[in-house]
Specification:
With about 80 residues, the chain is α+β, with helices and mostly antiparallel strands. It contains three helices and four strands, in the order βαβαββα.
Length: about 80
């Protein structure tokens, strides 16, 4: 809500074709969506751990959506 308000949804993914299809559907349906990147900077917050598959902890109070996307990307592999 901080970035987009109450009506726009962020779209994140690893498959550009799928992202494009979702954004196209949003335009057709009148839903407000905007693509967001999963940047390397955010991926750096997700690291290997000796006690878990991945560790995610970052004390900053911002960028959490992008951190979450980077975290999930670690589990989905090549699945769009």
């Amino acid at each position: 809500m901080v970035a987009f308000g109450e009506r726009t949804t962020g779209v994140l993914g690893t498959d550009e074709g799928l992202i494009g299809a979702v954004l196209s559907a949003s335009r057709t349906s009148g839903e407000s969506m905007w693509p967001l990147p999963i940047t390397d900077e955010m991926g750096a917050a997700v690291r290997s751990s000796t006690t878990a598959d991945l560790r995610q902890h970052d004390p900053k109070p911002y960028g959490r959506t992008l951190d979450a996307a980077a975290f999930l990307r670690g589990f989905v592999g090549e699945v769009p």
